[in-house]
TrEMBL record:
Residues 1-348 form the Major facilitator superfamily (MFS) profile domain. Belongs to the major facilitator superfamily. Sugar transporter (TC 2.A.1.1) family. GO terms for cellular component: membrane. It is found in: Membrane. This is Major facilitator superfamily (MFS) profile domain-containing protein. The chain crosses the membrane at residues 23-47, 53-74, 81-103, 109-127, 158-184, 196-217, 224-246, 258-283, 295-314, 326-344. It holds the Pfam family Sugar_tr.
Amino acid sequence: MTAGAMIGAVISGRMTDFIGRRLTLWILDIFYIVGWLAIIFAEGAWLLDLGRLSLGIGFGLTCYVGPAYLAEIIPKDIRGLLMSISQSMTGYGASLTFVIGSFVTWRSLAIIGCIPSLLLLLALFFIPESPRWLDYIENQRLQQNSDDNVLNLFRRKYLHIVIVGVGLMVVQASGGLYGFMFYMSEIFDSAGISSTLGFILVAVLQIPLIVLSAALIDKFGRRTLLMASATGQCLGCLLTGLSYFLQELDWWKEASPILALIGVLVYMGSYAFGMGGIPWIVVSEIFPINVKGSAGTLCNLVSSFCSWVVSYTFNYSFSWSPAGTFFIYAGICGFGVVFIAKLVPETKGRTLEEIHASLTRIMQ
């Protein structure tokens, strides 16, 4: 899936700028439907892999075009709230999947997973194209020039926002999410906790925190919530790592499973509160439309690549040292707190034009 997301990331920016936001949404939804159908009718591993690859491509496209489209059509005063609600759907979907997946077979779960994709197919008949994209295309036709080239991103006036965008993607994707999410059953089982109970608790905790984040984002701002979220993730990794460290030393056996459970809950809850969706909101806000395609592709590719690295290496690092694995993730999350505090700008309550003007002026 993460390999597919990298493919989707590579084509996301150019595709979205060339054919528009609306048509890209059509295409990514087809990838979702094909992916779920492949899994539903799979009789062997190759079709399961194909389905996961197709879902990954759809997700890679979604990560860019969803926030980009919403940022361009939503008024500044409610942009954070509505984008946060939209981004939180990933958390709701994961929570719902954790609960339903505890009681049904994987094939039944795939059938349920296909339903939102079919609903989106119907909804796409009723949404308009982004007016900012239409203006951009008209200007490009008249002027016949563009800064939308990956190399142009490294010009002095864009350097700061590229560092912010890429840095947020690295922190978000490298802090251990796919280790926790893809291998949560193994974490709970190895810590002596019922995985079914753990999944349900994670799902129940995530939902109110997602709602709280959406309610607070336009009041306290993106930066504050990101710092709180990264701090919570760091604490969750430390608690999970400490649980395994105590197991290795054969100390305090009674507390070790409880620490692991608390650590996973703190981490997943903190991720849902901010780092899950807000980095994509910030990335969609800080890049001017003339470089948004290339910038979105770069940030999306970095996110997908880091996610792939975490999901691919987790088994190996976990076999090497369970405690060490989570302590490494804690260090990355701690770095994220410092990075956000020092470099990430606040964008609440400002139009996209105001944000772009202030950020590009910093480097001129």
